[in-house]
C-alpha cells in the first residue's frame, strides 16, 4: 500500500471579515472587530457588512477605527494572526486615504498644542481660586 504525498491545502476562496480584520491587525481582538462591524464601522464595497461576510481578494473596505478612516483594498487572505510584517501585506491603503488621515492627525495635534497640563498639584491659593470660579463649563 503506497501513500500519496501530502497535498498543500488550497488557499481559501474567502475569509470571514471579522477574522480578516483581526489578522490584518486593524483590531486587537476578534470580538472588537465583530463589535465594530455590528456598529457599522466597516463597509465592504459601499455596503454595511455582517461579521460572517466573506472577504475576497480585490474587495474594497472602509474601516473606521476611532477617529481614523482607512480605505483599503484586500490583497491577501489570512484567518490566523501573524507578525505585523505579514499583516501589512494583506491590504493596500489608497494614497488619498493615507494623505487624509495624516492631515487629520496633524489637525488634531495642532488643536491639542495649546493645552499644557499643570506641572504639579495646585497650592492652597490656587485651590481657592478654582473653587471660587466654580464650574466654568456650566456657563
UniProtKB/TrEMBL annotation:
Q: Which UniProt keywords apply?
A: DNA-binding, RNA-binding, Stress response
**Pfam families hit by this protein:** S4
* Database matches in PROSITE patterns: S4
Q: Where is the composition biased (Basic and acidic residues)?
A: 96-123
InterPro entries linked to this entry: HSP15, S4_RNA-bd, S4_RNA-bd_sf
Domain RNA-binding S4 span(s) in chain numbering: 15-77
Q: Where is this region: Disordered?
A: 96-126
Protein name according to UniProt: Heat shock protein 15
Task: Identify the species of origin.
Answer: Noviluteimonas caseinilytica
Amino acid at each position: 500500500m503506497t501513500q500519496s504525498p501530502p497535498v498543500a491545502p488550497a488557499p481559501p476562496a474567502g475569509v470571514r471579515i471579522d477574522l480578516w480584520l483581526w489578522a490584518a491587525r486593524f483590531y486587537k481582538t476578534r470580538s472588537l472587530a465583530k463589535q465594530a462591524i455590528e456598529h457599522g464601522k466597516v463597509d465592504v464595497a459601499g455596503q454595511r457588512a455582517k461579521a460572517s461576510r466573506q472577504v475576497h481578494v480585490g474587495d474594497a473596505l472602509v474601516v473606521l477605527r476611532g477617529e481614523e478612516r482607512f480605505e483599503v483594498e484586500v490583497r491577501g487572505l489570512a484567518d490566523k494572526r501573524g507578525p505585523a510584517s505579514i499583516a501589512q501585506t494583506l491590504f493596500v491603503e489608497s494614497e488619498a486615504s493615507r494623505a487624509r488621515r495624516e492631515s487629520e492627525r496633524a489637525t488634531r495635534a495642532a488643536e491639542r498644542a495649546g493645552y499644557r497640563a499643570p506641572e504639579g498639584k495646585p497650592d492652597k491659593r490656587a485651590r481657592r481660586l478654582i473653587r471660587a470660579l466654580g464650574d466654568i463649563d456650566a456657563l
